[in-house]
Amino acid sequence: MWRVDLHTHSVASGHAYSTVAELAEAGAATGLEAIGITDHGPGLPQGPHVFHFSNLYRLREWRGACALLPGVEEDLAGPEGELYLPEEVLKQLDIVLVGVHPYGWAEKETAARVTRSLLKAMENPLVKGVTHPVNTWLRLDVKEIVKAAKDTHTAVELNLSKVAGLESELRQFLEWVEDYEAPLMVNSDAHIAAEVGCWGRAAELLPMIPMARVINRSLAAVCDFFGCQMPRYANEEVSV
Ligand SMILES: [Zn+2]
Ligand SMILES: [Zn+2]
To answer: Which residue in 65, 111, 118, 199 has a CA-CA distance of 20 to 30 Å to 146?
Structure first.
């Protein structure tokens, strides 16, 4: 199945329960080549301070069967696609994803204004993915987001922690992904190690997933899409 899980949270997110080492070990046990460590940005309650992200390059020193890719799941900080982390910090990360959560700037905004801001954020060349466009708390204009994905080189996410109750919306979403040739990522959004690479949760939607569009199928495909370096010790035999 897919060899990279691009969206996982460590204890640094405050409401997630595994360390990066535990996440990596779970990734290795499920046969993954790499995982993205994408803790929430500083705009979400409990989100780590900017220092967490400016220091995250140290993940590249991890030696193990499953490599770690430094990243973030950012939130919108304003109506024009603004983000919470400064550009110079975002530039240091491999996996910059943006998602909408019912906190921060987006909390009191309409779905239309949030969609507009998200479309602006997708135009930011540092932003390479949008997490859970289909969710239960804010009905974004998913069709417009999927339509913008190809031209802005932004992957849209099938989020496996948000499937129950959203099956029909997700089927429609996957149809649009195919129609508009959108880059797609399928991720766990793990908040505990046991959820890493939980591809079984995609079983019901599997016939609808356009496999050729899944960018997290391999680490090489991920590095190509995100324009990031192959992790230093990836695929290296580990000797202790
Ligand atoms: Zn979270
Ligand atoms: Zn997340």
So the answer is: 199
Domains held by the chain: number: 1
Q: How far, in Å, is the centroid of ligand 2 from the Cα of 176?
A: 22
Q: Cβ(10)–Cβ(53) under 8 Å? A: no
| 240 C-alpha to ligand 1 centroid (Å) | 33
Closest-lying ligand to the alpha carbon of 131? 2
Residue whose structure tokens are 């505990």: 192
Question: CA nearest 41: which of 95, 2, 4?
Answer: 95
For 7, 36, 112, 124, the CA distances from 140, given in Å and listed in that order, are 20, 25, 7, 19
Identify whether 99 is part of a domain.
yes
Contact of 57 with 24, CB cutoff 8 Å = no
CATH of the domain at 193: 3.20.20.140
Taking only the tens place, the pLDDT of each residue in 63-114 is 999 999 999 999 999 999 999 999 999 999 999 999 999 999 999 999 999 9
Residue 180 C-alpha to ligand 2 middle, in angstroms? Answer: 25
